Amino acid sequence: METQTVLETRDVTKTYMVSAGVMKTKKPLHAVSGVSLSVEKGSVLGLVGESGCGKSTMAKMILGLENVTSGEIILGGQLLSSFSAKEIARRVQPIFQDPYASLNPRKSIGSIISLPLRALKVGSPKDLNRKIDEIMEVVGLPPRTKHNYPNQLSGGQRQRVAVARALIMRPEVVLCDEPTSALDVSVQAQILNLLMDLRREFGLTYVLISHDLAVVEHLATKVAVMYLGRIVEEAQTRDLFKRPRHPYTQALLLSVLTPEPHLGLPETHLGIAYPNPIDPPPGCTFHPRCPFAEDICKKQAPVPAGEGGHMVECHFPRG
Amino acid sequence: MKKVLEVVGLTVDLELPAGTLQAVQNVSFSVEQGETLSLVGESGCGKSLTALAIMNLLPPSGHFSAAKMEFMGESLLGVNESGMSRVRGNKMAMIFQEPMTSLNPCYTIGNQLEEAYLQHRHAPDREARDRAVYLLEKVGITAAASRLNQYPHQLSGGLRQRVMIAMGLMCGPALIIADEPTTALDVTIQAQILALLHALQKEFNMGLILITHDLGVVARMADRVAVMYCGQVVETGLAAEIFNNPKHPYTRGLMDCIPVPGKVEPGQKLGSIPGIVPTPIGNLHGCLFRNRCQYFQPKCAAENIPLIEQGPGRAVRCISEQINT
């Protein structure tokens, strides 16, 4: 079967100018620098990294909420910047972290779910009702909740509403930004199961942004690890988890606290400081925290290398 | 080993417009020196209110009672506010979830670190300052002396949580109550903070009550675990026993919910617990988990289920024979 690329980013860079203080000139902050990714139809791309690594900036750019500083984002074969905001909304939809904050408390569930249809003026009112009922059944919301308000629903049900709202337009890409981090363990499992079922059923394509590597391993088909705005390692999920090559990826995997009491607490050797992105370290940006850093790492930035779809950006990749 | 805290029959009620919410029902546990007890459960299970009741910091709508609540051999029951404020922040410290909101943005961290020490020890400023620098270094903060003049917004989340830990340690506590201490942090920082907490606990031989919903954190940190559901302890025992051989259907359900790398095949359907947590208002009877339980039988609804001893220090609140298979 031929794979079809739905979403592609080519050397995407986002630079913000931030004030370094009163009376000081603004400094550039490279939130994302030179990120190239591709997402095939029906696949799940996991984007992982610590806060401040640029994963949410990537999300904003893919949703068309921020413009790229340079590079291009291609959606379904066309430049994202050539689409209108509404057209982007039709094709890419987000699911956010906190279903307590992402739903308007003064709108009924039916109204929240159908907003994308109404905003884009799709279908007659009759159609609208039918579509709401359909999608509510798909995501497993009881029909009676249609006229309820968000505060009457549990956290899991709210996140189902967010999923329904994202899917009602049948978007080409669903962008899940930490979809389960605000949920309880048992509810998280329900939402993850739902996301997996929907993907299988409708051939959905997800971009999954998360700091929870266990969730990413479970859902994603391909994983990209971000550090200070760059992709430092990218591989098929199974490959990445079995054979992490970048020292940062290794530290991340080590930090995952699986419920295995005999393992105790991991020693990651990462040091405390996540570098200030305004003033990134020279050479390989990871070198101050890297246990294997040598002289070259301090002077020269590594270039992406690797074979068989396993890319790593490191002078001395492991494994 | 000396018991630092012993709680027997703790009950917390919240007066709500809808009725009296029985947030914590007859909860008993104890913590020894150098030991970590983890209270684990999902939101609303009463784990945080248990901690607040021990510190006598319940919201105005809440009140608690207990058969016994002894801290370092002295009863905390009936101690008035000024008595409690001599204990809190002194021999009993608390670390909260959000270092963002639990540090005062208007004061320097030096100021906030020294406050409790000056208050409880009536020590000279110089001594408090030295102690603050010593502890900031202990929690792995570099250039500690210059940090004292910084404000919370100048520190990253991980550093703030380290400051919170240092603050808790100022008066040399015998017990630390940590409520979701790493939930707001990145995974790598979480591992570091937990390792730090663990090392300090061993060094100073403190008791630690770790409140969390994260089973991974519990497994790696706790010596003993109490699983809470709907205001009750449903299972308790050594961490290794609980994780290797969970007995209560709720505990088992929780374990099946989490994707474990290497154990659960990626993409495989995760287990889930059907239904939702009931609200403990009104006349509670029978097992509170029965509506979600696959082993339900009529007698589960008829009688109140006690915690049944399953061995030394191990107890399960379930009468089904299935749980031993």
What does this structure look like?
The complex is a heterodimer of chains A (319) and B (325). Chain A contains ten helices and eleven strands. Chain A is globular. Chain A is an alpha/beta fold and 319 residues long. Helices cover 31% and strands 22% of the residues of chain A. Chain A has helices at 55-62, 85-91, 109-119, 125-138, 155-167, 185-202, 213-219, 237-242, 247-255, 295-299, and strands spanning 5-18, 27-40, 44-48, 70-75, 78-79, 92-95, 173-177, 206-210, 222-227, 230-236, 311-312. Chain A has a single domain (5-312), classed as Rossmann fold, CATH 3.40.50. The mean pLDDT of chain A is 90. Chain B is α/β, with parallel strands linked by helices and 325 residues long. Chain B has a domain at 3-82 and 176-186 and 202-324: P-loop containing nucleotide triphosphate hydrolases (Rossmann fold), CATH 3.40.50.300. Helices cover 33% and strands 24% of the residues of chain B. Chain B has twelve helices and 13 strands. Chain B has helices at residues 47-54, 81-87, 99-102, 109-121, 125-138, 144-147, 157-169, 187-204, 215-221, 239-244, 249-257, 298-302, and strands at residues 3-16, 19-32, 36-40, 62-65, 68-71, 74-75, 92-95, 175-179, 207-212, 224-229, 232-238, 308-311, 314-316. Chain B has an eight-stranded mixed β-sheet, with helices on both faces. In chain B, β12 (308-311) and β13 form a beta hairpin. In chain B, α4 packs across α5, α4 packs parallel to α7 (157-169) and α7 runs parallel beside α8. The longest helix of chain B has 18 residues, at 187-204. Chain B starts with a strand and ends in a 9-residue tail after the last strand. Chains A and B meet through α6, α7, α8 and α9 of A and α7, α8, α9, α10 and α11 of B.
- The average pLDDT value of chain B, as a whole number, equals 91
What's the N-to-C terminus distance of chain A? 32 Å
Strand order of the largest sheet of chain B: 7-8-9-3-10-11-13-12
Number of strands of chain B: 13
Helix/sheet category of chain B:
alpha/beta
Please identify which CATH superfamily of chain A we are dealing with.
Answer: P-loop containing nucleotide triphosphate hydrolases
Number of helices of chain A: 10
Question: What's the CATH topology label of chain A?
Answer: Rossmann fold
CATH topology of one domain in chain B: the name is Rossmann fold
Alpha carbon gap, first and last residue of chain B: 34 Å
Shape of chain B: globular
